[in-house]
Amino acid sequence: MNWNDAAEDLLNQVLAQTPRPVRESTEAQLRGTAEALAEEDGKNRVGVETVIAAWVRNTPETVRPDLPRQMEQFGLDPDEYRHLLE
After folding, report:
1. Considering only CA atoms, which of 59, 77, 72 is closest in space to residue 22?
2. How far out from the chain centre does Cα 12 lie?
3. Tens digit of pLDDT per residue, the chain (86 long)?
4. What's the predicted TM-score (pTM) here?
5. Cα gap 77→62, rounded to integer Å
6. Element (H, E) at 2
7. Which residues are paired to 3 by β-bridges?
8. Where are the domains of the chain?
């Protein structure tokens, strides 16, 4: 599965915020989820929105309320992705 550059960049930003001991497993989870979501949508390339959806899905519910703040740190507008956070 292909990834566009912006999607790779966002994945790397998320991973940079992930504690080192779980970074590798988190990357595998996020990549797997993003590629599965893209396939479900009939896409042959992973984009930013798909990475965000995978990120939200793989974030434990107890820490999800912090995702909008993290999105803002990455230059994203959390309001655009509110539908994924609910």
Report:
1. 59
2. 10
3. 999 999 999 999 999 999 999 999 999 999 999 999 999 999 999 999 999 999 999 999 999 999 999 999 999 999 999 999 88
4. 0.93
5. 21
6. strand 2-3
7. 46
8. 2-85
Map tokens 């080192």 to a residue: 20
- Strand-strand pairing, 2-3 and 45-46: parallel
Distance set, CA 9 to CA 16, 43, 63, 72 (Å): 10, 19, 22, 15
Distance in angstroms (rounded) separating the CA atoms of residues 49 and 79: 13
Q: Which amino acid is at 80?
A: E
Q: How many residues does the chain have?
A: 86
DSSP 1: -
